[in-house]
Prior knowledge:
The complex is a heterodimer.
Chain A: H1 4-14, H2 20-29, H3 31-39, H4 46-50, H5 63-83, H6 87-100, H7 104-107, H8 110-123, H9 128-135, H10 139-144, H11 158-168, H12 176-185, E1 189-192, E2 197-200, E3 210-212, E4 215-217, H13 221-229, H14 233-246, H15 254-261, H16 266-275, H17 286-296, H18 306-319, H19 341-357, H20 360-368, H21 374-381, H22 389-395, H23 402-411
Antiparallel strand pairs in A: 1-2, 3-4
Helix pairs in contact in A: 1-2, 2-3, 5-8, 5-17, 8-9, 9-13, 11-12, 14-15, 14-16, 15-16, 18-19, 19-23, 20-21, 21-23
Chain B: H1 3-8, H2 18-23, H3 29-33, E1 47-53, E2 63-64, H4 71-75, E3 86-87, E4 93-94, H5 99-106, E5 110-117, H6 125-134, H7 145-152, E6 160-162, E7 179-180, H8 194-200, H9 209-222, H10 253-265, E8 272-277, H11 286-308, E9 317-323, E10 343-348, E11 355-357, E12 375-376, H12 377-388, H13 393-397
Parallel strand pairs in B: 1-8, 1-9, 5-11, 5-12, 6-7, 6-8
Antiparallel strand pairs in B: 2-4, 3-4, 5-10, 9-10
Helix pairs in contact in B: 5-11, 8-9, 10-11
Region (Disordered) (chain B): 230-251
InterPro entries (chain B): DUF1501, TAT_signal
Protein name (chain B): DUF1501 domain-containing protein
Amino acid sequence: MADRKALAHLLRRATFGPTAEEVDAAERAGADATLDALLDPAAEDAGAARTPVPKLPVMLNDKTDRAAQIRTVGYWWLDRMVQAEHQLHEKLTFFWHGHWATSADKVKSGALMLGQQQTLARTGLGDFGTMVRAMLRDPALIIWLDGQRNTVKAPNENLARELMELFTLGVGHYTEQDVREGARALTGWVIDTTTGTASLNAKRHDDKPKTILGRTGTFDADSFAALLLAQPASPEFIARRLWLRYCGDNPIPEPALAEAKRQPTTAAMLRVLLLADGHAELVKQPVEWLAGALRQLGLRPGDMPENQRKQLQSGLNQLGQVPLRPPSVGGWPAGAAWLTTSATQARLKMAQLLAGKAPQPVLDRLGAAPQAQRVDALARLLVVDAFTDRTRAALTPAAGDPRKLLALGLASPEYAIQ
Amino acid sequence: MDTVTRRKFLITSGVVGGAALAAGSAWTLRDVFDTATWDDRPGDAKTLVLVTLYGGNDGLANVIPFAEKGYREARNELAYSAEEVIKLNDTVGLNPGLAGFKRMFDQKKLAVIRGVGYPKPDHSHFRSMDIWQTAQPDRPGNTGWLGRWLDTFGGDPRHAVSFEPVLPPLLAGATSAGAAVPVTGLALPNGVQTATLEKFGATSAGEPALQARAARAFADLVSVDTLIHSVDSDTDDEPEQAGGTGTGGRSDLKAQLDLVARCVEANVATRVFSVSLGGFDLHAEERDSQESLLKRLDEALTGFAERMAKTEAGRKVVVAVYSEFGRRVAANGSDGTDHGTASNMFLLGSPVKGGLYGEQPSLSDLDNGDLKFTTDFRSVYATLLKDVLDADPQQVLGYDRAFPGLL
C-alpha cells in the first residue's frame, strides 16, 4: 500500500487541495496511477460541465459594465477551481496565470481576460512553444504590455522585454540590444476592439532584418518565439518556475532539472518535478488555501448568493491574491511573504466565514467522532498530516463545537502549509 | 506620551530574513509594547519617510528641461512647452501636475536632485528595484539598505515600519527586519479568543521553518492588545489604475501617509517609514496618465509635508522620493517611453534645504539612447543615513561620499 502521507503531499501540490476521499482513492490506486489519472483523466470533467465558461460580449463601453464583467469572470473562475474534477489541469491554468501575470486593471475587459484564461487552459499542459505563440496573439497580454502600440515607426519594448525576462528566459540571458531588436520583431500587432481579436497589420510591422541573441534574420513574432524557445535557458527557466510553485523555494536538484528540461510538454515536465526528490515545504497561496478549503468543506461558490461570493473575493483581496489582478507583471510572491500578521488575521476571518457556511454533513462527520478524537477527524477532513502538540492544545478546547473546531483548523499554522 | 496612541500604530508582521527568524524566536510584540514608555528617541532625532515609486518614474517629465536643445525633438507629443510647465527658472519647470511641489520649492522645502542613477544601469524593473533597495549596484544581495541600518540600530522592528501588506526588501536586514503594517488595520474576528491564538503562536519542536513562521505570525497578532481600526481607507476590490503595466507598489499613498502622520504626531519610536505608489510604467499614452499620477503624488506628499510642518515632531520629518529608473529620452511613438536610466530624487520637509541639486544629464550626450547619470544614488542615501538617521553610511552602505548641502 502506498504511503498515505506521500500521496496526500502529492495531491496537495498537484491540486487545489484534496478531499479525504480523494486521498483514500489515491491510496487504493497507488502513486503512479494517481498521477497518471491527474495528468490524463479518463472521464470527462463533470465539474467543468457544471461550471460552463460564461459567454460575454466583447464590446463594453460603460465603466460599470466592464467592472461587473470582470467580477463575473472572477466569480466564475473561483467556482471552476473548486468544482473542476481535472484538478491538476485547473491548478496548472492558475499557475500559468501567475506566470503571464496579466491584470484586468489595465486590460479592463472581462471578455479578454477570460479569453486569456481559456488560452492558458487550452495550452497549459502541452508544448510550451504552442503556448508562447498563442500568448503573443492574446489580446489581453498584448494590451497589458502595450503590444498594440509597438510599430515599425515607434517600437515599444514592454512586451519584448517581459517576454524574455519573465516569460521565457529569465534575467541574464539576453542583452539590452536583444530587447530593442526583439521589440522590432513583435511590431505590428493590433487589436480589433469589436471582435476582441489580435491580428498582424503588415504596414505596422518591421520586416527588416534584426539581430537577436546573435542571430540575424527577418524575425517576426513566431520566429522570435522559436529563437527564444531554442535557448537552453528556456526549458530550464520554466522548470524552475514550476519547481518554485509546486515543489519548494529551495534549489531544484540537478538530476530533476536535467530530466525536466528534456520533456516535450509542460505536463511531462510537471510529472517529473512532482515525483522528484527534494521537495521543500510550500506556503499555500491564498487562492490555493481558499479553493482547497471550499473543496474540503463541500462548498460551491456558484451555489452561493452574490453577497457571499463577494465576501470570498474580498477575502482574497485581504489575503493579497485576487485572480485576474496580479500585483505586477512579475506575478505573485511565494513562501514567507504570505505569512504576515495581516494575512494571518485575514485567514482567521475567512476561516470563520467558511466554517459558518459549512454544510451540516461536514459538521456531523466531525461530530460523529468521540470528542477526544475530533482533532484527528479534523486533520483527516482538512488533509493535514498531523497537527503539532501546540495546535492540538489550541484545538482541543473547541472540540465540543465542530464549527469552531473547523474554523480554528482552517486558520492553523499547519493548514497554511502545503 | 500617549501610550495607547503609540501602541495603536505599531503592529508588526513576520520578519522576512531567515537569520531574523532564527534570532528573534523568543521575542513578541507585547515585549515591545511594554517598552512604549521608553524615551528611546533623542530630542533632535529625525524621521525618514521613504517613498518608492514603482514602475520607473520619468524624470524628464517631472522636472522638465523645456528650454534644452533636443528636448522637444526627443519627446514629440509628450513634450511640454515653456507655457505649460510650472517654471522653476528659465530653463526647467515642473510638470503641471506638481503644483504643490512648486509651493514647497518656493518655501525652500523641496530639494530636487537630478540625474540620480548608478553605473551599468539595468532596465529590468525587478533587478533595478533590487539595486535601489539593496544599494548594491554591482550585485544586489538579500538585505535592504534600511534593513542593514536597522541591524546597526538594535534591530527593533518598531524602528522601521512599512504600511504595505508585504514587507519591501529594503527593510529586510541580515539579523532583523522592519514591520509591515497593513493600512486597513487589524482586528480580531468576533469569537476568536486571544488564548487560542497564544497557543497557535507557540513553536513546536521540530516543525518545518515556514510552519514555524506561520505560527509566529499568531504570536505577533496576539501581542497586539489594542488594535488598529481602519483609517479612512476601504480596500475596494476594483482598484483604480492609470495606464501603466503593474510593476508593484500601492495605489493608496495618501492613506499610507495619513498613518505615518498619525504615528509621527503620536511620537512613536519609529525612525523610518516606507510607503509606496505604483503605476509609473507608462509605455503608452503617457502624458495624461502621468499627469494624473503625479497629481496624486503631489497632493499626497505636499498635504503630508504641510501637515508635518504644524507639529514639532513633524518638523523633524524628511521625505525622500525615488523610483527604480527614469525613462528613455526619446518617446517611443505610442506616446509613451520605454525603460530608461537616471531620474530625479526629491527630498521634502522642514529640515530640507530646498533647491535644485545635481547636474541635469545632457540630452545630446547619451548612452545608447539613455541619460548618463551624474549623481550616484548611494550618495543621497549616505546623506539620509548621516543627517537624518545619525548613522555611519560606510557601515551600512560601504560608501560614504554623502551628497552635500541637502539638509
